[in-house]
Amino acid sequence: MARLHEHQGKAILSKAGLRVPRGRVARTADEARAAATELGVEKAGVMVKVQAWTTGRAAAGGIKKATTAADAADHASRMLTMSFGRFPVTEVLIEECISIARELFVSIAIDEAARAPVILLSATGGSGVEERADATSRVSCHVVKGPNPDELKAAVARLNLQIDVAHDVQRTIVRLFEIARSNDARSLEINPLAITPAGETIAADCRITIDDYAVARHPELGIEIARELDHPPTALERVAYTIEQQDHRGTFFFAQMNSQANGEAAQGSKGLIGFHGAGGGGSMMSMDAITAEGFTIANFCDTSGNPSPAKVYRAARVILSQPGLVGYFGSGSGVANQEQFWSAYGLAKAFWELELSIPAVVRLGGNTEDRAVEILHTSTKDLPAKVEGYKKTDTPKAIASRFATLVEEHVKKNGARAAWTPREPRRPAFVGSTHAVSFEIKSGGGGGGSGGGGSRVWIDLHAWKTNARAIIARSNGLLKDDHGRPAMAVPAAEFASKDSDLIAAEVECRRDGVEGLFVVLDMPASL
Q: Which of 236, 444, 520, 522 has the most crowded Cβ, counting Cβ within 10 A?
């Protein structure tokens, strides 16, 4: 479920005609000071509230009252150095204080068993509402028509409110359902729904999650990634999501385990590692194995379902964009029903381009695993660090132990230089030169990338004179010689769709010492 921040949810409520406190978002202490002044902090004070996808903000010091603009700036300054779930706070909400006579709790969610929405209404709001089930009423809902009128009326009656206030609360709940339905919300929670001394109902807090599959219908919500995350998407997660959306071949899921701002491992850890899995269950088992060896996992990554070499290549590029890694650990299902040699080609290309200088252990268990391991070993033997491939008979525990040994040797040998520093990929000198020709390929990259205009295969004209026969033999029938110059042997549209074969041709040429062919795969521009 895609989550919205409190201030985003309140903007939706306000636009729909419900009352919310006046507020402003601040990203710096100065912005917080200005917002507090604008909201009239000297009259009744303001609330400074961390914007994070979590509960328990008040207990963690993420909600404070300020009685002066300077107080608001101080609170904001402190909160903007906080982290929730190891992810940094980037925004705070400066909001007018409201007088509250009573707090209620309202939640709209999907009852999976009934396959219909349900409303929970509690006579008391605030923290710990989950522990007060006896004070909570349940109101069934029709998917289109909304809450059952009789059940809602009875639930509100149990709140013992004045008649006019009860009517307002009932109207508010009906409107909340309409808001949830119109925005395809999986859940909408108001805690508390405040009743003021004057009898007005105000949504003092708001949490909304949107159905992942409905995000495309709501561009106005500004949701960047239609996946359930416990934090706003990081820059690398945005890049990964772009790659996933633009290449349908297999899956690519990437999530950072912490902000990675400084590339720091957990205290007492053996170091930070990039994790690359294939298949959910096997990946979880592999993560347990590497964690048991004392490493901190920088990210979770899964490329499965027969991913293209281009997708695996880009996944490796994303993983290796994280600073401070001491190793690259790849392990997922031992019986993956996908042709693992394609993944090996993608990894081999990424490792060569980035001149991988940290140890890598990759378990490529499944179809064609023998060929996959051979490709990985022979194509990376000249890199600065060891790269080792393993098969399904090699358990996650065994390869995690081997990985720990390689990292220990690497750190002992290189000292302070052992940690990975992200770098630009290397390119042969002929790429982009007048002494080469290139042909466009479509590899689902994300556009605006490196290497001179998107994804292309480049062929060195000088090398072609001596290596044409060898390059053609490795191109799977895609290239031919035309009077001493390289040419496409198939129609341009067909050629453009053969990025996997061309990546394989590049790696096979490199394995055999044949120079003159290189594939440039574009990456999202923000990487």
A: 520
Say if residues 495 and 337 touch (Cβ distance below 8 Å).
no
For residues 499 and 503, give the distance between their C-alpha atoms in angstroms, rounded to a whole number. Answer: 6
Give the residues across from 140 on adjacent strands.
118
Amino acid at 507: V
Task: Report which residue type is found at 485.
Answer: R
Q: How many residues does the chain have?
A: 527
Cis peptide before 425 (omega within 30 of 0): no
Nearest of 110, 133, 106 to residue 121 by alpha carbon = 106
Cα–Cα distance, 119 to 140 (Å, whole number): 6
Among the listed residues 389, 420, 385, 394, the one whose alpha carbon sits nearest the alpha carbon of residue 299: 420
Asked if residue 406 lies in contact with residue 412, where contact means CB atoms within 8 angstroms, the answer is no
Instruction: Give the Cα separation of 295 and 316 in Å (integer).
Output: 19
Are 67 and 43 spatial neighbours (Cβ–Cβ below 8 Å)?
A: no
247 vs 342: CA distance, rounded Å: 15
Block means of pLDDT (10 residues each) for the chain, length 527 residues?
91 97 97 97 95 86 96 97 83 97 96 93 74 80 96 96 97 98 96 96 96 89 78 86 90 80 75 92 91 95 94 97 96 78 97 98 93 97 96 95 97 92 96 97 64 79 98 98 97 97 98 97 80
- Residue 88, helix vs strand vs coil: strand
**φ, ψ dihedrals at 260, nearest 5°:** 60, 25
DSSP letter at 427 equals -
Distance CA 348, CA 342 (A): 10
With beta carbons less than 8 A apart as the criterion, state whether 118 and 188 touch.
no
Instruction: Report the alpha-carbon distance of residue 471 to residue 469 in Å, rounded.
Output: 6
Q: For the chain, how big is the Rg over CA atoms in Å? A: 28
Whole-angstrom Cα distance, residue 198 to residue 448?
Answer: 57
CB neighbourhood size of 423 (10 A): 12
